[in-house]
Amino acid sequence: MIITHLKQAWQLLKQNKLFSTIYIVGTALAIASTTIFAIIYYVRLAPVYPDYQKNRILTFSTILYEAPGYSYPRYAPGVSYKAMTECFNNLKSAELASAYIVDWNLSPVFAPGSKTSFDIVKRLADPAYFNIINYEFLSGRPFTQEEFDAGSHKAVISDRVANKLGFTPDQAIGQSVNIGFVDFEICGVYREGSAISNLSYAQAIAPYTINSYYNFGYPGCAVAGNLSVLMLSDDEEAVRAEIDEYFRKYSSTELEGKKIESFNQPRSALKAAFTLNAEFEPDMIEVVKKNFLILLTLLIVPALNLSGMIASRMDSRMGELGVRKSFGATRGALLSQVLWENLWLTVIGGVVGLALTWLLLSTNMVSTFTAILATANYLNDPSVTIRFTADMLFAPAIFGFTFLFCVMLNILSALIPAYSSLRRPIVTSLK
User: Fold this and answer.
1) What is the mean pLDDT of residues 125-145?
2) Taking the C-alpha atoms of 88, 94, 99 and 103 in order, what is their torsion angle to the nearest 10 degrees?
3) Cis amide prior to 50 (ω within 30 degrees)
4) Which of 180, 215, 250 is the last residue of a domain?
5) Exposed/middle/buried for residue 205 (C-beta within 10 Å: 0-12, 13-18, 19+)
6) Among residues 215, 230, 265, which one ends one of the domains?
7) What count of other Cβ atoms lies within 10 Å of the Cβ of residue 330?
8) Strands across the sheet with 260-261, in order?
9) Measured between alpha carbons, how far is 331 from 389 in angstroms, rounded to an integer?
10) 306 & 401 share domain
11) Residue range 254-272, pLDDT digits in tens
12) pTM of the model as a whole
């Protein structure tokens, strides 16, 4: 019976090319837009390259402090080297801690002997950073603790940067390159991740000790500085309690008891993915509601349009259905045929939609849509190319969920007008 329905659906597809084309294109666009939406959030939330430990990563950055002699509280974008060495590196409830500085202003890179340059996203970090963010090194190595302590001008760059400089990964090792008007020696080349991941995206990473201000403490509060922190831990509350206790002791002894506000940090990478400002705690329930409504909009609007098309098509087929009724076809059999026809078109639309998704993502044709959904400052810069790796594009669970959800909506969009039409008496159908 199913084979018969599919054969009939194929014949109707060839006979009604305009309707079939519009139906397939509408389904493909709905699945493509929804899959792109899902993949972007999948990259931001799932443990994909290089954030394989994302479900254990905690983040800490902005603090607000009151200091003696100042009439108003002051913000600091992070903590100081003093706080890093006294507190974060000695946390009992964290396996590992790493400090880093993100340069949100793109840094120009000059190839050796070249007069041209291009812009990249640069991070300054410590060696522990590479044990939390698991970059795949294609050649060379990360800078060592000794090089970090000495403030050596060593840097690791991504494979795409090496390629733009005219080097293979192996050839790049030992070469001199100017990044942000500072000369570095390349000691490693790693596989670049996706720009959507504001947790780890960088095209060049160097020791933050190259800057003399790395151990700078803000006026009036020596634990306030410019360092953001990543930690590995399975106990967010315990880590938060340790950090709060450190700030409390420092405040009582150095700030005359004045407050240091840590904004309920550290925060999981999941929560951090939905805010650029550490002082604002994201309401995850509201985040889920908002994104679920966007998802429904992407699917329901096309489903309503398809429902109207199916209703119109059913009216044009009433004579055919009336004849079949008169020869004994049951309402259930006719309804089953209509649903199988639409399922067949939906499957074709799904395949086209998946191909369209890969085309759009692999050719960076959805950068604006991506920048809206992903909260990364540098995505709006035209020099940053959004890259989707194979493990991001080939996520069967994402496409499977999207396709099943779309099938359900398409079945409902076909069921309602088909059931309404088939309830008409035979005489009415034959007119």
Assistant:
1) 96
2) -130
3) yes
4) 215
5) buried
6) 215
7) 11
8) 74-76, 63-65, 260-261
9) 49
10) yes
11) 888 888 999 889 988 888 7
12) 0.77
pLDDT value of residue 391: 66
* Residues counted in the chain: 431
Residue partners of 406: CB distance under 8 A and separation at least 6: 27, 30, 31, 34, 299, 346, 350
Instruction: Write the pLDDT tens digit of every residue in 66-110.
Output: 888 777 888 898 999 999 999 999 999 999 999 998 776 788 998
Spell out the residues 6+ positions from residue 222 whose beta carbon is closer than 8 angstroms to its own.
Answer: 80, 82, 254
Task: Name, in order, each residue with C-beta under 8 angstroms of 21's C-beta and a sequence gap of 6 or more.
Answer: none
Nearest to 362 by CA among 380, 384, 389: 389
DSSP strand E in 43-193: where? 57-60, 63-65, 74-76, 78-79, 96-110, 117-125, 137-140, 154-158, 176-179, 182-190
Please count the structural domains in the chain: 2
DSSP 8-state symbol, 272: H
Q: Are 262 and 61 in contact (CB under 8 A)?
A: no
56 belongs to a structural domain: no
